[in-house]
TrEMBL record:
<feature type="binding site">
    <location>
        <begin position="10"/>
        <end position="13"/>
    </location>
    <ligand>
        <name>NAD(+)</name>
    </ligand>
</feature>
<dbReference type="Pfam" id="PF09290">
    <property type="entry name" value="AcetDehyd-dimer"/>
</dbReference>
<keyword id="KW-0520">NAD</keyword>
<dbReference type="GO" id="GO:0008774">
    <property type="term" value="F:acetaldehyde dehydrogenase (acetylating) activity"/>
</dbReference>
<dbReference type="InterPro" id="IPR015426">
    <property type="entry name" value="Acetylaldehyde_DH_C"/>
</dbReference>
<feature type="domain" description="Semialdehyde dehydrogenase NAD-binding">
    <location>
        <begin position="4"/>
        <end position="120"/>
    </location>
</feature>
<comment type="similarity">
    <text>Belongs to the acetaldehyde dehydrogenase family.</text>
</comment>
<keyword id="KW-0058">Aromatic hydrocarbons catabolism</keyword>
<feature type="active site" description="Acyl-thioester intermediate">
    <location>
        <position position="128"/>
    </location>
</feature>
<keyword id="KW-0560">Oxidoreductase</keyword>
<dbReference type="Pfam" id="PF01118">
    <property type="entry name" value="Semialdhyde_dh"/>
</dbReference>
<dbReference type="InterPro" id="IPR000534">
    <property type="entry name" value="Semialdehyde_DH_NAD-bd"/>
</dbReference>
<dbReference type="InterPro" id="IPR003361">
    <property type="entry name" value="Acetaldehyde_dehydrogenase"/>
</dbReference>
<protein>
    <recommendedName>
        <fullName>Acetaldehyde dehydrogenase</fullName>
        <ecNumber>1.2.1.10</ecNumber>
    </recommendedName>
</protein>
<dbReference type="InterPro" id="IPR036291">
    <property type="entry name" value="NAD(P)-bd_dom_sf"/>
</dbReference>
<dbReference type="GO" id="GO:0051287">
    <property type="term" value="F:NAD binding"/>
</dbReference>
<feature type="binding site">
    <location>
        <position position="287"/>
    </location>
    <ligand>
        <name>NAD(+)</name>
    </ligand>
</feature>
Length: 313
C-alpha cells in the first residue's frame, strides 16, 4: 500500500522532494507537483517523470482529479504562502507537512519528537538550521541543563533561493523557539549566514551551548549517538571536528545572557557539516537536502502508521 503525496512548490526544495521520493521511498507515491510558474524546471521534470502538475497553485491542486486520493501535502513554498495554503486546504482534512518557517503546527525534528506529534494535521519541519542543530542541543540537554544555546547556520549563497531569502526573519524566530521547545535549552538564539564563497561551500553549522556540569564523556557520547541517528536519513550529516569544552568563569555579564546568578559554567562547541546527496540539488546544498530528507522521513513514518492501521505489513 502506498501513501499518495502532493508537493506544493516547484522550486529547488519541491523538485528535490519529488526526485528523492521517486527513487528511495517505495511507501510514498508523489502524484502531483504544484507551482505558479508554468516555465519552472520542476514542473517540466515532473511531467517528464509522469507526475501530474499544475501551475495554478493550491487552487489548481484542489481542482485536479488526483487531489481526492492525496493523503499528505508537503508545502515547500514560503512562510507567508503556507499560511494561505493551509487555510485553503483545511476543509479537506489532508495531512500537511510544512517545510517553511510558518510554524502553524508543532515543531518536528524526526529523531527527537516525531512520535508525540503523529496525529497533528499540520507538522512544521522548523528550518534547515533547526534540523541540523536542534538534535545536538537536545543531545546535550538530555545529559545536563542548558541555560543557553546559540546556533549559526552557514550556507552557500547559491543554495539560497527566493523562498529562503524571503524567510530570513522567520528563520531566526522559528529556529530560536524550536531550540527551546524541542532542543531543551532554556533560551535559544539562531543566526543564518549566506556565504558567497566560490566555489560554493558545504553547509556548516556551529552549536554553542552553555552547560552547568562538565560531564564531558557523557555529553560527547550523547552527541555522537545523535549524529549517527540523523545520518541514518541524512547520510552527509557529520561532525566536522571533535567536540570542544571551554570553562566560563563566573562573570556578571553572563547574567544578561542566561538570566541566572553568576557561577562557573562551561561552553560546549559542536561543529557540523552537511553534504547533500545530490539527487537534484548540488552536493553543497546540504541545507536544502536536510530539509527534504527530514520531511520524507516524517512522511514515511506517517505512511508506516497508516499501513499498520490498515493491517498491511
Amino acid at each position: 500500500m502506498t501513501t499518495k503525496l502532493a508537493i506544493v512548490g516547484s522550486g529547488n526544495i519541491g523538485t528535490d522532494l519529488l526526485i528523492k521520493c521517486l527513487h528511495g521511498y517505495p511507501r510514498l507515491q508523489p502524484v502531483a507537483l504544484v507551482g505558479i510558474d508554468p516555465e519552472s524546471d520542476g514542473l517540466a521534470r515532473a511531467r517528464g517523470l509522469g507526475v501530474a502538475t499544475t501551475d495554478k497553485g493550491v487552487a489548481g491542486l484542489i481542482a485536479m482529479p488526483e487531489f481526492d486520493g492525496v493523503d499528505i501535502v508537503l508545502d515547500a513554498t514560503s512562510a507567508k504562502a503556507h499560511i494561505a495554503n493551509a487555510a485553503a486546504l483545511e476543509p479537506y482534512g489532508k495531512q500537511l507537512l510544512d517545510l517553511t518557517p510558518a510554524a502553524i503546527g508543532p515543531y518536528v525534528v524526526p529523531v527527537i519528537n516525531l512520535d508525540q506529534h503523529l496525529g497533528a494535521k499540520n507538522l512544521n519541519m522548523v528550518t534547515c538550521g533547526g534540523q541540523a542543530t536542534i538534535p545536538i542541543v537536545h543531545a546535550i540537554s538530555r545529559i545536563t541543563s542548558v541555560p543557553y544555546a546559540e546556533i549559526v547556520a552557514s550556507i552557500a549563497s547559491r543554495s539560497a533561493g527566493p523562498g529562503t531569502r524571503a524567510n530570513v526573519d522567520e528563520f531566526t524566530e522559528t529556529t530560536s523557539k524550536a531550540i527551546e521547545q524541542v532542543g531543551g535549552a532554556r533560551r535559544g538564539k539562531a543566526v543564518i549566514i549566506l556565504n558567497p564563497a566560490e566555489p560554493p561551500m558545504l553547509m556548516r553549522d556551529t552549536v554553542m551551548a552553555i552547560v552547568e556540569e562538565p560531564r564531558r564523556d557523557e555529553i560527547v557520547a550523547s552527541i555522537e549517538q545523535m549524529v549517527a541517528e540523523v545520518a541514518r536519513y541524512v547520510p552527509g550529516y557529520r561532525l566536522k571536528q571533535d567536540v570542544q569544552f571551554s570553562p566560563i568563569p563566573a562573570e556578571e555579564p553572563l547574567r544578561t545572557l542566561i538570566d541566572a546568578a553568576p557561577r562557573d559554567r562551561w561552553k560546549v562547541s559542536v561543529f557540523l557539516e552537511v553534504e547533500g546527496a545530490a539527487h537534484y540539488l548540488p552536493a553543497y546544498a546540504g541545507n536544502l537536502d536536510i530539509m527534504t530528507s527530514a520531511a520524507l522521513e516524517v512522511a514515511n513514518r506517517l505512511a508506516e502508521g497508516t499501513d499498520k492501521m490498515s493491517g498491511v505489513a
